[in-house]
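User: Can you recover a sequence for this backbone? Please restate the input before giving your answer.

Assistant: Of course. Working from this structure:
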């Protein structure tokens, strides 16, 4: 009887996954469907982000990527799990509508609700000039990921020296403002991501793009749901 119950649950899960996939463009997948043990903390679907509220087009806290990027990410996860670690995803595919929301927010000088946490040393008016916000994002091409490493048993994130989406020099790969341990943690992430086909972004320790991304010139705008 137990075996039948497990089989029914598996079939229900499979059918749900297939139904979800129908909502996506060809060659896009839900990260959790392919990598069940990965952890998601999709910040733009909630209020713990530099805007301070859910971002437009993030209708559910799910992670979506192109299939090639997801397959490469699965290799990263397997490598880390063998060492007692696990990936935590902050953002993956990002709709152009969400990027437009960032632009709208950046152009409102009166809204500084999150300044103390996310950009204490940067004037909001300079966020465009300094490259923290742009009119186009590699995330919208479907093969860029924001992530960190956590302990697989405790769920505690490794100390990377700055928080996700912190706008400042301390988030850069070449910063001299972090400890040896923090540098080692960043190096672990960087090394294992490069090994599995991703390239880092110098100004953000959490940001990686698949080297051979399938849609290098296409910016998608379907919702995250």
């Amino acid at each position: 009887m137990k075996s039948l119950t497990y089989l029914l649950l598996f079939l229900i899960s499979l059918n749900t996954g297939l139904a979800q996939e129908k909502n996506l463009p060809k060659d896009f997948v839900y990260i959790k469907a392919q990598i069940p043990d990965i952890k998601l903390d999709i910040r733009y679907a909630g209020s713990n982000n530099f805007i301070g509220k859910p971002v437009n087009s993030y209708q559910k806290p799910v992670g979506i990527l192109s299939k090639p990027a997801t397959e490469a990410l699965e290799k990263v996860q397997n490598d880390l799990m063998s060492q007692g670690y696990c990936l935590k995803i902050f953002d993956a595919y990002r709709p152009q509508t969400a990027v437009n929301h960032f632009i709208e927010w950046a152009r409102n000088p009166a809204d500084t609700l999150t300044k103390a946490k996310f950009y204490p040393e940067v004037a909001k008016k300079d966020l465009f000039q300094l490259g923290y916000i742009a009119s186009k994002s590699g995330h919208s091409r479907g093969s860029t990921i924001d992530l960190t490493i956590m302990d697989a048993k405790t769920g505690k994130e490794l100390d990377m020296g700055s928080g996700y989406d912190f706008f400042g020099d301390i988030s850069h790969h070449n910063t001299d403002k972090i400890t040896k341990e923090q540098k080692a943690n960043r190096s672990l992430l960087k090394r294992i991501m490069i090994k599995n086909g991703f390239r880092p972004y110098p100004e953000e320790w959490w940001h990686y793009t698949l080297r051979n991304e399938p849609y290098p010139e296409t910016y998608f705008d379907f919702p995250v749901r």
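That completes the design. The longest helix spans residues 2-21.
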